[in-house]
Amino acid sequence: MGLLSSFRTISKLVKYGYLAYEHVDDLQAIRKALKAFLAFTVGSDGDVDSDSYLSRVLNETRCGCADVAAFTDGTVTENVNSPYKWDMAGLPIKIWIDALPGMSKPSWDSVLKDATSMWSDVCGVTFEIVTEARVAELIIVSAAIDGPSGVLADCELPTGIQRQRALKMRMDRGESWAMSSINRMLSAPLVVGHELGHGIGLMHIPVNKGTALLNPMYNDRLTGPTQLDIAEAVGRYGPKRVIVPTPIPPVIPVPPTPSVGYSYVIRSDSPISIDGHRILPK
Ligand SMILES: [Zn+2]
Fold first, then answer.
1. Nearest Cα residue to 155 out of 199, 99, 215, 95
2. I need a labelling partner for 167 at 20 to 30 A (CA). Which of 27, 161, 194, 206 fits?
3. 239 alpha carbon to ligand 1 midpoint, in Å?
4. What spacing in Å lies between the alpha carbon of 114 and ligand 1's midpoint?
């Protein structure tokens, strides 16, 4: 038996939501789940009996969150438009970022600014970056996930747990993080932006629906959310909030005081002088 029914394949199908535990011995269910996994993650059902193909797809760098919401026997439930969202009545989500590996703290702060604007620029969600973890509602920390490549990061969804404690986003400390995808380094803004999509309630968007920041695989050709992601975000939070500045009352110009007309009476018997020139009365 090839890679199709290997422990590695099955554990990934279970982890990402395609296969229920009770079906891990059912070859037909595994095959069906694997086809669904390939359609979702690479946009094609591929050749599930080709070990080299499967090995390549299963090793692609990706997010560690599940692709489908509920365990199934290989029939993927439609998971986009999930009900997960923050109900904050317009308040900002408070985020705190730890000092993460590979870059300085100011660089990670700047990554977070970029990632939060990816969403606050396109929908009605807003964020506040806080300096104390204890007041945060979403925290970003480093974690030893699986070493270089493979799973890059993950983030909890706002399924209600955020009412008890802060949601957690984990960045794999085994990766080489950078401000952009250069020299085989990973773009931290792109990955934090993707994970923050989960943080505001979005689930993965299947590749066979189109290119999206919330596709499960890392795609360094993207720079931020696409129309598919934006539709999901706007569906939850409405369009971008436009801050209307408090109107300043117009300044009503004060008309100049009309000059008072003076009339001079020059007495014929009194000489006057202007600028020192003596003028004699006529
Ligand atoms: Zn993800």
1. 199
2. 206
3. 23
4. 18
How many residues belong to the chain?
282
pLDDT in tens, 153-205: 999 999 888 889 999 999 999 999 999 998 889 999 999 999 999 999 999 99
Neighbours of ion ligand 1 (CB under 5 A): 63, 65
Q: Which amino acid is at 59?
A: N
Cβ neighbour number for residue 130 with a 10 Å cutoff: 17
- Rounded Cα distance between 117 and 193, Å, is 9
Q: Which of 46, 16, 14 minimizes the C-alpha distance to 30? A: 14
Return phi, psi of residue 112, to 5°. -65, -40
Query: How much is the pLDDT for 282?
Result: 47
Predicted TM-score of the model (pTM): 0.83
Alpha helices in 184-244 (DSSP H): 188-199, 227-237
Determine phi and psi for 172, rounding to 5 degrees: -70, 120
Q: How far is the CA of 240 from the centre of ligand 1 (A)?
A: 23
The answer to whether 71 and 60 are in contact (CB under 8 A) is no
